[in-house]
Amino acid sequence: MPNIFFKIQGSEKKIKRLPLPPGPSPWPIVGNLPEMWRKKPAFNWIHDVMKELNTDIACIRLGNVHVIPVTSPEIALEVLKDNDSVFATRPLTMGTEYSSRGFLSIAVVPLGQQWKKMRKVVASHVLCSARLHSLLFKRREEADNLVRFVYSQCCKSGSGSVVNVRHAARQYCGNVMRNMMFNRGYFGEGNEDGGPGFEEEEHVESLFIVLQYLYAFTLSDYLPWMRVFDLEGREKLISNAIRTVSKYHDPIIEERIQQRRHHRGNYKKESDDHQDLLDVLISAKDESARPSLSVDEIKAQCMVRYLVYLIRTFVCFNHLIHALEFD
């Protein structure tokens, strides 16, 4: 086992490197990427490797990155609780780079100055209890719309009809965040029955594509020089999905910024009663009374807030549906 040396206060101290957990023998340069590429899905191959090694913690080298999977609750608790500060940062992936416009947001950004800046703004202005309480009526409004939409679907025929609960739940997630973020129920005109129109369905579908590949196993995340080839086609999928979402977000954000910061058009400026989360992000000020966020940071935060809310709300719906099935 090789030794490493470093200087502490002018003196050299010899430190023995601790052994890594067991794992499959890696290839030069690429590590275990060939095996993981051939035996998809990746998590099944990892579980099989750990079962063969009879271990609860393993070390798998992917390119120059050591991936440490853990299956033991005790070890996981040690990682996530006892040593949480060591593992507080987030991995760099193609999906997180695209969704955060080059790591400008908070939820998917690695620990650093940008993360600290965004955390301060979001914690002070967006996630405070007063702000969430002020937007409660919007969440209730969309809950009423969901019930109305499901009821209208059931009444389409005299004997009732089948309702796609998954579709309704996904659209509800998008509607709530759209109302809280942009103060509007639809990007287009919607449907006569209160359901989503083409614009809303395209928007939500694109968001779920981004979520699907946000942290998905991608070769280019471990071998950056392979990104230009896009062997799995995921970069094209994610970039197209982000482009679709931006098609609906960016015009609203840019127009609101012009109205809010320069008081142009017919925009009515409010003192403290913000209409939605977009107004909150635009009006956030730093210590010098200047805007805290740039235009790109606002766009990135709107995107990531959408993704975070979709995850939380859709997970709750899934738990509810499973509970109803078991009942």
Description:
The structure is a single chain. The protein has helices spanning about 35-40, 40-55, 75-80, 95-100, 115-125, 130-135, 135-155, 165-180, 200-210, 235-260, 275-285, 295-325; strands at about 5-10, 10-15, 60, 65. The chain has about 325 residues and is mainly alpha-helical. The strands form two sheets. It has a two-stranded antiparallel ribbon with strand order 1-2. Strand 1 and strand 2 (about 10-15) form a beta hairpin. Helix 10 crosses helix 12. The N and C termini lie far apart (about 55 Å).
SSE topology sketch:
Layout: E1 3-8, E2 11-16, H1 33-38, H2 42-53, E3 60-62, E4 65-67, H3 73-82, H4 94-99, H5 113-126, H6 129-134, H7 136-154, H8 165-182, H9 198-212, H10 234-262, H11 277-283, H12 295-326
Antiparallel strand pairs: 1-2, 3-4
Helix pairs in contact: 7-8, 8-9, 8-12, 9-10, 9-12, 10-11, 10-12
InterPro entries: Cyt_P450, Cyt_P450_sf
GO molecular function: heme binding; iron ion binding; monooxygenase activity; oxidoreductase activity, acting on paired donors, with incorporation or reduction of molecular oxygen
Protein name: Cytochrome P450
